[in-house]
Amino acid sequence: MNHAAPSQKKAFGHILGxxxxxxxxxxxMYVEAIxxxxxxxxxxxxxxxxxxxxxxxxFDTFGLSDGLPHLTVTTIVEDADxxxxxxxxxxGLAAYDGRGFQVYTTEHGLPSNDIFGLQPQADGSVRVLTxxxxxxxxxxxxxxxxxxxxxxxxxxxxxxxxxxxxxxxLATQRRGVLSMDGQRMNTDSxxxxxxxxxxxxxxxxxxxxxxxxxxxxxxxxxxxxxxxxPGSQQFESIRADDEAEGAEAVQQGTxxxxxxxxxxxxxxxxxxxxxxxxxxHPFSASLPDVHFSDTRLTYEDSEGNIWVGLWGGxxxxxxxISVQLxxxxxxLPDSEVxxxxxxxxxxxxxxxxxxxxxxxxxxxxxxxxDYTVLSMVVDRQGQVWSNSPEGQxxxxxxxxxxxxxxxxxxxxxxxxxxxxxxxxxxxxSSGQLGRIEANRFIAIEELQPQACRVVLQDRExxxxxxxxxxxxxxxxxxxxxxxxxDMAGMEAVVYVNALCEYQDAIWVGTTHGLFAVDYxxxxxxxFTVDQGDLSANGILALVADPQQECLWxxxxxxxxxKYDGQTFQSIRLGKSALENIVxxxxxxxxxxxxxxxxxxxxxxxxxxxxxxxxxxxxVAGRTFDEPQAVSCPDSTPEIxxxxxxxxxxxxxxxxxxxxxLVGHGPAEEWSAFAPANRVTYQDVPAGLFHFEVRTVxxxxxxxxxxxxxxxxxxxxxxRLEQMLRVSNQGFLSQSQTMARLLDQVESMAETDMTVLVLxxxxxxxxxxxxxxxxxxxxxxxxxxxxxxxxxSAGLIESELFGHEKGxxxxxxxxxxxxxxxxxxxxxxxxxVGDLPLDSQRALLHILEEGHLTRVGGESSxxxxxxxxxxxxxxxxxxxxxxxxxEDLFYxxxxxxxxxxxxxxxxxxxxxxxxxxxxxCAEQLGRPTPVLGEEVVVHLQQYAxxxxxxxxxxxxxxxxxxxDRDVIQxxxxxxxxxxxxxxxxxxxxxxxxxEDEDEKQRILAALRATNWRIYGPRGAARLLGMGPEKxxxxxxxxxxxxxxxxxx
Length: 1047
Prior knowledge:
By secondary structure, this protein is an alpha+beta fold. Among the domains are: 323-446, Methylamine Dehydrogenase, Chain H, CATH 2.130.10.10; 492-598, 4 Propeller (Hemopexin), CATH 2.110.10.10; 612-711, Immunoglobulin-like, CATH 2.60.40; 716-898, Rossmann fold; 905-1037, Helicase, Ruva Protein, domain 3 (Orthogonal Bundle). It has 16 helices and 73 strands. A hairpin with a 2-residue loop joins β14 (148-149) and β15. α12 (947-961) packs parallel to α14 and α14 (991-1008) packs across α16 (1027-1037). The radius of gyration is 39 Å and the shape is flat.
């Protein structure tokens, strides 16, 4: 037997939907573009209000004040680096990296600032379609433009597509459909209408057979779409007028066409039409006051939901899969469904307030009308029995139904049910319990003077009877004795609607919630909205499901609940109250779920796509929006986490969450799943913790775990900790400038955001990077420092990202790159401005995605690295020169700090000089010399173009070559101090002078150590650099150890 959902003339006639407007937070009412990003968030571009981001619960809107260059957003895509790209009409291209917008216009090479389309390409570039032609956008610039074709201006390009034969077609405003060689699409038709249509193309879509479908902007009053076969090079027009909603004559073209993953064609015009290869089907949703004739476009998300953008009507969400509603127009006698049963032949019997119907061979047919079905049973012979409020009993055999007078003397049947016996059981209006035998009622027992609402015979053979409108409302009949069943919470119950046996308990559905009576202990559990997470207290239906090992619960206004023995999962079946009043539940023999509601029969299909989850905000003394890590003092009274599950099909109100705070005592255990999407922890002690949260959707599908590092620091130790670490790293200072800077560094250290350290050569950028690491939650993990300028040009990516064996000629073994070595810790990229553009792109990808691929490898490797970059170059000038990526600059400079040159903090010079003298003397095993009285003044009068590093080298040379007790002015080898002071600051960076100065410092250190490089008394230690770096510098300056004289 076919148990598919009932077929109808309109294949999509039973879709439930929801409309979103500006009152819900949508940016505008005229929707122009819809896009789902890689994180599952939906972006909606509008003509009248900018762009919105939607997570199923909240709309975040971006406009002019947020950096969007224009409120008309025509197209949205995501580039290879994960940035959202927005094409605007008048403002150019806007790239959003999660923090802000970067705008690109004709100044960056775009053909025009009026953009109609964006198309990401396989090579990472983006094709930009504008009113003046097509551009190729790469790394912050439009590197190639096509504004003419075959010697004529191209003008406005709406769309581009490459067909299965390899021909690229353009949909243009002035010249119709053109190939890249300037040829028009061939119609080979005598119909002038075909040629006219090809002058008005709008957009393309390609199906699995390779056909190119074309939507037209204007074709008169017809609903027409074009189809081009690249194999035969033939074009034809296809009409679909008769099926369109709102097919009244209007001169409006086809606004949008797309092909979905099932190779169905979606056409947006005066309504939405779907072509399955044979027939056109109108698509709409059950929404009052919404007319789909205003459709601009359709979009399918990763769950299979359909989003409809309306021109003036906002946004429509449609779920075409999970919930389909059938009512009177589909063959039901009435839309109020009270009973559902399946017979032995697989037919579904539907009892309504207007009669009986049968679902057979995917069609609903009325069987008996004009009576209300109170109860319905399929007996052990496969016969269907039902009864009416008037006491009539009906028996349906095959396609026939007949009324049977089973009671004499005016006694009426009020309840039919199948017990454990062979015969059908019944209750009468006078409270008699009996069986139906040979179409006659035979009384078994006089139970009570009132009729039963529901009866259940349990596994032990006793009967449970639920009454309606009386107190007490629950009875138990066992061993010939009838007794009221007294349980806590049942005192006020006067309506028992449902009874079910599940998990060694009798479950009782009442108007006051759900009760469970344990067989063994006789203990009673009560579940309500306030105590037990029910969606409604009125319980109308209970069905045990052995297939999914759960209990299905129909409620009065709260939809359906699924209980797995631990958690109640809510399933909302629609937006109206009637759709969520559920009187009957059936899982048929094919596994299909059916719900009988006051709005009709619902076929329900659970989802298959797990939800996602994001931590939206943390409040810990201050607010952290979508943080990567959180740090706060232990004086913070409470830490509150806000999180949000993402499943458009389930909706935010049907998500449930479980969370824990790893490292925080009792909170380390996962909490029970509950609907609250925030949690607060109070008085969290000092320590390192990890907050983790997960969510389940209405179908019980679970998300991955979202994690967030939380560091709580003792308040009184924070400043002391900083001072001690600064001292240990040689960051000695007593200036106010440095004090303010170190306060900023302390705050920066609390996050995982990238930091760009700027400053002249020798100011201590590497020391600052080490300080950031030591103050951060990553302090116990690796700190890896890389000099980008010292990497071999051909091996930069191999050094940074690693390589696989055989990746290139000399790759004899697998190599782990610097990023993987720094996993969990901090990677310091010094001289980052020296990276070539190709390596910059790879670096940007890792920063955005948190994954890398080794050279020669295929697998994506996750890395958790905090990057600190440094440079003495003007990166903005490098961007203008095309030597540095603008997007990488903004990604690196999320946080930035500028280290002042030594000449701007002269009060630190005596402290630093004394420190360097002491350290050098200790390394050489000598007494520490003191600074002479005049040498301090002498040092402060110098401009220090090499900054702290130069001061350190000068003092080292003085200690090595000068008087061993006192450093005098003569020991400090300055030349032309006055001239040096008179130089402009930028002249202090003369490359030749700096190289010569470095060469002399290295030569002095080598001589002082008798050319020893390694060890605690070697030149590398004396100069404060690694031995390999010293060898590299020696080769650079041509320094070699003198040969011993021959004997």
